[in-house]
Amino acid sequence: MTARLQCCVPFCQRTIGADKGYSEWICPKHWRQVPREARAAYALARRRARRILARKPIYREYWRLLPGSPARLSAVAMWRRVDSAWERCKREAIERALGGGDGR
């Protein structure tokens, strides 16, 4: 049996193939429960990161840059924006699935 990646919402049995390149995943059922504003913020952070990576591919491997250099600080800030937007989406999906949130 091939490896599968389970939805990050507790007790959700939906899975996706581990070969898709994800480290975490939210199934479509729970993704729809994430507020539109959170999904839009995540998409915006990803689009901005993709544009920055097109111009500066070294940001993909920021750990190779000198510690404390402006380039490394910019790269880390970019990845933190994407990560924090993802964490917000994940938190919202879990809260909504467990009955929390305002249910908009």
Notable traits:
104 residues; mainly alpha; two-stranded antiparallel sheet
Order of helices and strands: EEHHH
- Portion of residues within helices: 40-55%
Sheet/helix structural class: mainly alpha
Q: Give the integer mean of the pLDDT values.
A: 90
* Uncertain stretches: none
The counted number of beta strands is: 2
Q: Widest sheet: strand order? A: 1-2
How would you sum up the major sheet?
2 strands, antiparallel
What report would you give on this structure?
The structure is a single chain. The chain has 104 residues and is mainly α. Helices cover 50% and strands 6% of the residues. It contains three helices and two strands; from the N terminus they run E-E-H-H-H. It has helices at 28-31, 36-55, 70-97, and strands at residues 4-6, 15-17. The longest helix has 28 residues, at 70-97. The mean pLDDT is 90.
SSE blueprint:
Layout: E1 4-6, E2 15-17, H1 28-31, H2 36-55, H3 70-97
Antiparallel strand pairs: 1-2
Summarize, please.
With 104 residues, this protein is mainly alpha-helical. It is built from three helices and two strands; from the N terminus they run E-E-H-H-H.
